[in-house]
Amino acid sequence: MSTIKEIAERANVSRTTVSRVLNNSGYVSEEVKKRVLKVIEETGYVPSENAKSLRTKKTKVIGVILPKISTETSSRLVNGIDEVLAEKGYQILLTNTNLIPEKEIEFLRLLKSRHVDGVILSATNINEQLVDEIYRLKIPFVMVGQRISGLPNVVFDDYQATRDIVNLLIKKGHKKIAFIGVDEKDHAVGYLRKLGFIESMKESHLPIEKSWIQKGIFDMKSGYNCMKLILDSSQNKPTAVVAVTDRLAIGAMQYIKEIGLSIPGDIAIAGMGASELSKFISPPLTTIDFSFEDAGREAASLLLEKINGHDYHETIRTIKYRLLERDSI
Amino acid sequence: MSTIKEIAERANVSRTTVSRVLNNSGYVSEEVKKRVLKVIEETGYVPSENAKSLRTKKTKVIGVILPKISTETSSRLVNGIDEVLAEKGYQILLTNTNLIPEKEIEFLRLLKSRHVDGVILSATNINEQLVDEIYRLKIPFVMVGQRISGLPNVVFDDYQATRDIVNLLIKKGHKKIAFIGVDEKDHAVGYLRKLGFIESMKESHLPIEKSWIQKGIFDMKSGYNCMKLILDSSQNKPTAVVAVTDRLAIGAMQYIKEIGLSIPGDIAIAGMGASELSKFISPPLTTIDFSFEDAGREAASLLLEKINGHDYHETIRTIKYRLLERDSI
DNA sequence: CTGAAAGCGCTTACAG
DNA sequence: CTGAAAGCGCTTACAG
């Protein structure tokens, strides 16, 4: 691979001059410029970004840390991020924690060592250690999906979105509503959504039986099991159920169908996330569209602002959501 | 951010020595080693990968070029790639062509300029210019999904997979089978799958009406339109249809249902790709599971072999597929 | 076992 | 308008 030195020699100029035509900076006579450009063309020379960033301290790459690589949420998010970043000539360095919390810190350091210009972190749960590390590294940073105070955040209104769903169910006449959640260590999905459920029920003076609240993990099987638990262990069967993700909801639907109950006739059900599946499953699932692409775009824009020296204070951008009412309720 | 120089000063040794303990190379006395390690610990020093790779010519990053970032195919592929790469300490630099062919060449150059150790390209159609560029860049390279002779390829048996589906339909008694394909410039999905269809029909001495073959693009709407065309313009209505992707098939199903025909009663239908949707749609769609994760893993392994100096000759790895027979036929 | 020095491929004051 | 030289943060022969 050729270097700037070779180009300089071939064009009979100094490396300085070559650098100048490469970056369109400083004065270069038209004649010399042409000559250099010609040599570059001929040789197919491509400057080393590596060497360049060693000098300039800019890499034009953004690190993205994902909790899971092949989920619809992640890919929609990355899609949004890439959309705004690509336009500005930034590349994405992708890392995947596979839901292992320690990996977040590991990757944060790794990204730093690679001198990324900034990082976007999509985490399911955050701990103190992680927060410390983020502050310590002093790198332009945006958190998406969870909120860390003092830092730029792109968040969803998990609390209100859940309330909207529960209230809709209540408006439709349901009084006995079950809830399938996840671990509350996941503050956004686990804690806030559960809180939304509980408060909405409370405000409407609706009692909640203990067996109506179940906790799963992020997959269908788990939704299936939770639904089974709810139906098997409740004296007082609920007439509706809201799950904090579509996958949980779809798993629950499977159990409901399996035991011969009808949706929404016997049990109404709603999910959250607006997965593609939710639209095609039968019956179509009522859900919340959090527009992860928007979140990605917003996170990327926010990060670029930080990189370009705008204040590094806490910023919170809340992404709009839409309630999609479909036949499952 | 601290540098090796600072660490050296603090530990009262030379940079050489620090480098040696960092890389566990050469002799360093236990005592000195401990001292250096302690300083590193205290300062939270992380070596600059950038500077390192400028010297060593290795970056430990692999470029991945995708035709589309948020498709199930892409994310399953990237998942497989990441699985084997992460284990070996490699990172992924992600680029997305959004199906714009010129971007492939652009990104190839960009990845080269970033000194990635290798690149994996998942392309939908390839042209001569692209092939030239790949050869010119002389970078460890693996192509997935399409075959380029002379290079390492990870491919699917598009031809045989399609034949399997068509033959299954024929075995079930269908004699009038329609086909929804894509542009043949996409050699794997467009050309080979169509060829498989035509040859299977031919071997069974089954005629194909011209209106039974339609060409769409990669989305549901297009499948819907193709199905409409097939049914509207055929005197002789087919009793089965095979689509080259699940999305096309699902779009087709929508039209079939819309006009009140039953699946598989009136028309049997099969897709390809084994999307998650195919399993949950009603009725569940017969399809081919190409196991894109395997393809990703295989591509990454193959690339690693190339990087580690094993011959750079043509290698073809064909990924196994499974025919998933479900209620849609 | 340890260190001085050269060099990787760029950019950028500085001088002319 | 152009170039010589220093420097970015590492590693690696080479010498001791």
What's the average pLDDT of chain A? Answer: 92
The unreliable regions of chain A are none
- Shape summary of chain A: elongated
Strand fraction band of chain A?
15-25%
Please outline what is shown here.
The structure is a homodimer of 329-residue chains. Chain A has 329 residues and is an alpha/beta fold. Chain A is built from 13 helices and 12 strands.
Structural account:
- The structure is a homodimer of 329-residue chains.
- By secondary structure, chain A is α/β, with parallel strands linked by helices.
- Chain A folds into three domains: 4-47, 434 Repressor (Amino-terminal Domain); 57-157 and 292-320, 3-Layer(aba) Sandwich (Rossmann fold); 158-289, Response regulator (Rossmann fold).
- In chain A, 48% of the residues lie in helices and 16% in strands.
- Chain A is built from 13 helices and twelve strands.
- The first copy, chain A, has helices at 4-11, 15-23, 30-43, 49-56, 72-87, 101-113, 128-137, 158-171, 187-203, 220-233, 246-258, 276-280, 292-307; strands at 61-66, 91-96, 118-122, 141-144, 152-156, 177-182, 213-216, 240-243, 268-270, 287-289, 315-319, 322-324.
- A six-stranded parallel beta sheet of chain A has the order 2-1-3-4-5-11, sandwiched between helices. The first copy, chain A, has a four-stranded parallel beta sheet with strand order 7-6-8-9, sandwiched between helices.
- In chain A, α9 (187-203) links the parallel β6 and β7.
- The first copy, chain A, is elongated, with a radius of gyration of 26 Å.
- Chain A starts with a helix and ends in a 5-residue tail after the last strand.
- The mean pLDDT of chain A is 92.
- The interface between A and B is large, with 42 and 42 residues.
- The structure holds a DNA duplex (16 and 16 nucleotides).
